[in-house]
Each structure stands twice: as C-alpha cells, then as structure tokens.
Amino acid sequence: MLAFLVKRLLNAAGVMLAVAFLAFMIFRFVGDPVELMLNEQASQAQRDELRVRLGLDRSVLVQFGTFVLNAIRGDFGISYRNQQEVFTLIVERFPATFELVLVATFLSLAIGIPLGVYSAIRRRSFAAQAIQFVSVLGVSLPSFALGILFILLFSVTLQWLPAFGRGETVALGWWTTGLLTPSGRLALILPGITLSLFQITLVMRLVRAEMLETMRTEFIRFARARGLPDHAIHFRHALRNCLMPVITVTGLQIGNLIAFALVTETVFQWPGMGLLFVQAVTFVDIPVMAAYLIIVSFIFVTLNTLVDLTYALVDPRLRQDAMAGGAHGR
Amino acid sequence: MTTPEPLLAVRELSVVFDTRDTALLALDHVSFDIRAGEILGVVGESGAGKSLTGTAIIGLLDAPGRISGGEILLDGQRIDNLPPEAMRALRGRCIGAIFQDPLTSLHPMLTIGDQLIETIRVHLPLDQVAARRRALDLLHQVGIPGAETRIDHYPHQFSGGMRQRVVIALALAGEPKLIIADEPTTALDVSIQAQITTLLKGLCRDHGASVMLVTHDMGVIAETADRVAVMYAGRIIEMGPVQAVTRAPRHPYTRGLMASIPSMQVRSSTLHQIEGSMPRLNAIPAGCAFNPRCEWASARCRTEKPMLEAGAHGVACWHPVGGSAHG
Ligand SMILES: Nc1ncnc2c1ncn2[C@@H]1O[C@H](COP(=O)(O)OP(=O)(O)O)[C@@H](O)[C@H]1O
Ligand SMILES: [Mg+2]
Fold it and tell me: Which residues of chain B does A311 touch, with a Cβ-Cβ cutoff of 8 Å?
C-alpha cells in the first residue's frame, strides 16, 4: 500500500512538472511580458530595468526553476489587467466554480444512478427505452445551446429563475458560498443542471452497462437461487458491484467538469475561474492564463490520485495488504 | 408396496429456446421423481440438458428459454406456474442450489457472513444476532476452521475448496428439503473433490434434504447417489438404482459412458470412447437421438423415438443391452 502510494505521488508530481513547463512556455514566449506590462512611451532604460526585475535576463532553466518554486508557493505573479495577485484572483473565484461543479456532480449521481438501474432492470419497458433515447439526445446537445435554451424558457419567458450571476453569497472565511441564501440556491439551479446534463447521461449509461453485465454473473444467479428478493439483488448485490467504476468516473469527471464549467460560466456569467480565464484570454492576461492552467491541472491530478486511492479502499481485493494476518480492516 | 408421494415430481417437462424463426427443443418430455432423503444422480455429456433441468426446477430459466410443457411438483404442489414472488420465496427455502464454480458464486465485495446472514434472514424469522449465530453454526458444519474470525472475511480470502464449503452453507441456510447441486466439484482441484462430495452427502443426510446431483463423473455418482438418470440430447435415456445402472447398463450410450471411465470398467470387452459427439439442438436426429453413434442402430431407431420404460430400471432404447426390447 505504501509503495503504491509513493508511486502514485511521484507520478502526479511528474505530470504537474510537465504542465508547469507548458504554462511557463506560454508565460515566457506568448508575447513579451515587458511589452505587455509597460505602455508604449516607456524608455529603453525602464524596459531593461523591468526585464531584470522580472528575472528575464537570466537563463531559461533558471527562470523555469524560479517559476516552479514560485508556483509551489502560490505565487503566479501579478495580473496584467488589474494589477492584483493572480493567485488571490483565482482563489477568490474558486468557490463559485467548485459549488457549481459540486451541484452538477450531485445531480448526476442522484439522477443518473436511479435511471441507470431502472433502465437496466426494466430493459424492455417503454420508459427504459424512452430514457435511452433521451440520453442520446442529451449527449449530442451542446451544453451552451441548452443553457441558452434554459435561460430563454425559465428566466425570460417564465421568469422563475435568474439568468446570470451567483445571487447573494455568504462569506465563510475566505470561502464564499451561495448555498446558504435562497437567491444563491436559486441561481445554482440552471447552471447546475446545464453543467450536469452530459454527466447525468454518462453516469446513467455507465450504471446501465455495468448493471446489465453484473446481472449476468454467477454470483447474481446464485443470489437469485437463494431466493433473495429483487430489491436486495438489484441494489445490495448488483449496484454495489457497479459503484466502483461510477466512483472512478465521477471522480475523474470532476476535473472535466471544472474545465467544462468554463462554457457554462460564460453562458450564465457565473463568476468562477472559467469566466476569469475567458476574460483573461480576451485581455491576453498571460499570468492568469498560465496560473489557471496549472491550478486546473493540479485539481485534475489530485483527483486522479485520490480516485486511485479510494479504489484501493473500496475494493476489498485491493485491500489485501491491510488484511493480511486475518486482521479485519476498519 | 406403497409409494409415498415423491418430494419432487417432474412430469413430461419440456423446455424450448425461442429463436427468431423456431423454438429449439432443449428438454424433451423429461420425467423423474426424487423421494425424500434420496440422492438422484444425473449424468450425461456436456450439453445434455442437465443444468437446464435444474434451472427449470428452481424457476430461473431466463428468456429466450421457457418451459413449453409438462409440470413440476414439489410435495404434490405445482411450482412451475407459480407467480414470480411465490417462486422466489420457495427458492432457498424449499429448494437450494449449488453451482459449479465456487470462485464466481460468491459476491466479491460482501463478507461471507453478510451473505449468510442476509440469506438466513430472508427465509427465517431471526434477528441479526440469532442469524449470525446460525451462520457460524453453518460454517462449523461445513468445516470452515476458525469460523469465528473467518465469518468476517471476503470470498477472495478463501481457497476454492473453502469457498465451495461456504456455498454449501449458503445453500443450506434456509433449510431446504431439496438441493440441486450442479457439478459442485467440477471446478475444484481433484484432491479435494471427494471431500466436498462426502461433505455434501453427509450434510444433506443430517438435514434430511434430498439432492439432485448433476455431474459427469460416474465415479462420484457410484459413491454418492441412490439412483441415477442418464441424459442425452435433452432426454432421459436410462434411469434406475445406481448399482443396476453402473453394473448392468442397458442403454448403449450408458454402456459407452461407463466404459469411458477407467475406474468403472464394466464387463465390456473393450475400453472405448463413444464415437462422435452429441448433436446440437438444431440438428437432433429423428428417431433415437443417439442412433448415428450407436453400433446397434436399426432402421426403427432412425425413425421411431423410443420412450423411457416405466419401472425401477427403465431404458429408452429399441435394442437395450441384455434384451427385453420394449415397444
Ligand atoms: N441461453 C441459451 N440459448 C440457447 N441454447 C441454450 C442456452 N442455454 C443452454 N442452451 C442449450 O441447451 C442445451 C442443454 O444445456 P445444459 O443444460 O447447460 O447442458 P449440460 O448438460 O451440460 O448442463 C445445450 O445444447 C445448450 O446449448
Ligand atoms: Mg451444465
């Protein structure tokens, strides 16, 4: 277990280093930072001085080293656009994105799992076929189109839900949450559903496929032969066997959701990291772009590693080491 | 001699598989009884319909398979046409089942205790504590050493033989009167097959359960069963007391089956494999299904289907070994 842990951590560190290099290349070579930071009238002396101050006169390797060390400390430099620290800027936006992703993930599991189970055990029923059909639609419809459709229907026409923004938020330390106010919760609904739709169909199809496969196994046949009732067979035995892939995929998808939240955030003017990034791109705010890349990758890699470790915890067969000697785990 | 009502009576049972254009006949008018406390061995080559018979009895036949005729009676009550919920309540409680592969019969993510306790509580009115006590008792009975700690272990922590013992405990958990054991030792190491068979036989005797023991090992049948039914291409072609059938097989196929097992050498001049193989469901020959492989086949065998004789040792053959041709 320890060797496994160390291996996974080294792996993660390697990936992060590669991403940092990419971000560094963008930072260093997409446009000249000095040109971007000073106005046209700046003198050559001023330019040189800034160049030295930014460390741009040193070798690329030293610059990269400094870049990585700074990044580890959370120092991504100063935003070109509003002269604020990039890290603070992104951290401020993180709770908005995270809550959106959390809601989307929750919806995808809460809706996707029951639909998946249902369409597997009532495979031939009309409802199951209909769910399958709608899920195909769900996969093929781009989320921004759906978001705009939702805004038109629920905000403009029916005026039930807000079309943009987070509503009122409450500060809990550095974290701001929209979950504690009515307007904050209302504001989460449309973007949350929009972001989760693809995810719902994904979870549903995964659960369905896994359930159908599990229902054909010998241990389900033996459970049926023992006269266990259907609900126990479906939910206790079969679904349990499907949960691991669902955990894996959901965990991995959180990274994707954070990345794809960019589109949803743009449509709903949701003040998250994605919107910040889109704005940074418009203003060629390179430090913000580089930092976004690194932070989102970091989340990605962290989740990946966590999922692997969870996997080892959930599946008793992978827990073998911990169980050796007859000790009963947990 | 009065014949008490058999525990299980299978009457003219037919099973078909629906395909796009036809229904393939997989079990063809199968009839047999199992009396209380009796062990009926069922033998035959792979594909003869042994498992299908067991599956039909426990009501787990899934589409495209279905019972197309006949009836199954347990204690004189028909069970082949029960509503699903009634049939479910019967499974595990009245009829237990053991399948071939102990490695895949247990849920890999539930401890054996969880699986035992769940099964016990479905069938018996016991609380968690009492059910656990009964689970431990069952584990002791099937010979799991250190049951007190082993009960909380997962299947992967047991060897194949130990897992099959757990499977047997699970099958007995609801105190069924009939156990259908479908090749319970085939997947196991040869060295422990005999142990498991002996265990199964002893436990069923102690619990007063009858057994339908499916196997293709005539040796196991000879040591374990009271009577034996020989199946070929979806039919029972010979049935009788185990001594009679193994010592004096009457059907040429049974004779071949015995002769192909070195330890079971009947007074046959040559030890030989039966030539050819069993027909597929869509190519079952007319008349006696065995006729293309039979050295005694006559014109009649190719056109007329022989029926299984009634009586203690019956055969479905126009030219049975040892004479007394029927029909
Ligand atoms: N799902 C199925 N669809 C079509 N044919 C089947 C199916 N299951 C079993 N069969 C056929 O039924 C026959 C009997 O099978 P089975 O009872 O498993 O034989 P065995 O005697 O080896 O246990 C075989 O010819 C097999 O091909
Ligand atoms: Mg079989």
Answer: none
Q: What's the whole-number average pLDDT of chain B?
A: 89
Cα separation, A109 vs A249, in Å, equals 11
Helices A86-121 and A182-215, axial angle in degrees (round to 10): 40
Residue reference for tokens 């209909």:
A130
The pLDDT tens digits of the residues spanning A181-225 come to 888 888 899 999 999 988 899 999 999 999 999 999 999 999 999
Q: Give me the residues of A, 183-202, that contact B with CB < 8 A.
A: none
Task: Let me know: does A292 contact A225? Beta carbons within 8 Å.
Answer: no
Least CA distance to A320: which residue of chain B?
B157
A139-165 pLDDT, tens per residue? Answer: 777 878 888 888 888 888 888 888 888
pLDDT of residue A318: 62
> Residue B179: its pLDDT value, please?
95
pTM: 0.80
B57: nearest CA in chain A?
A225
The DSSP letter of residue B292 is G
CA-CA distance, A128 to A97, in Å (whole number)?
Answer: 33
Is B25 strand, coil or helix?
A: strand
Return the beta strands (E) in B119-209 as ranges: 178-182
Q: Does ipTM come in above 0.85? A: yes
- Which residues fall within 8 angstroms of residue A84, CB to CB, at 6 or more apart? A78
Q: Average pLDDT in the A113-127 region?
A: 88
Q: Would you call B90 and A241 a contact, using CB atoms and an 8 Å cutoff?
A: no
The neighbourhood of ligand 2, an ion, using CB within 5 A, equals B 51
At B2 the pLDDT is 52
**Residue A81 in contact with residue A280, Cβ under 8 Å?**
yes
Ligand 1 neighbour B50 (Cβ under 6 A):
yes
Other Cβ atoms closer than 10 A to B267 = 7
pLDDT digits (tens, 9 = 90+) for A63-111: 888 888 888 888 888 887 777 888 888 888 999 999 999 999 999 999 9
Torsion angle of the four alpha carbons A178, A181, A184, A189, in this order, in degrees rounded to the nearest 10: 100
What 3-state DSSP class applies to B308? Answer: coil
* Cβ atoms B208, B37 nearer than 8 A: yes
Q: Which of B58, B99, B154 sits opposite A218 (nearest CB)?
A: B99
Using a CB-CB cut-off of 8 Å, the residues of chain B touching A223 are: 107
Domain at A93-322: CATH architecture:
Orthogonal Bundle (1.10)
Residue B243 — φ and ψ, nearest 5°? Answer: -60, -50
User: Domain segments of chain A: what residues?
Assistant: 93-322
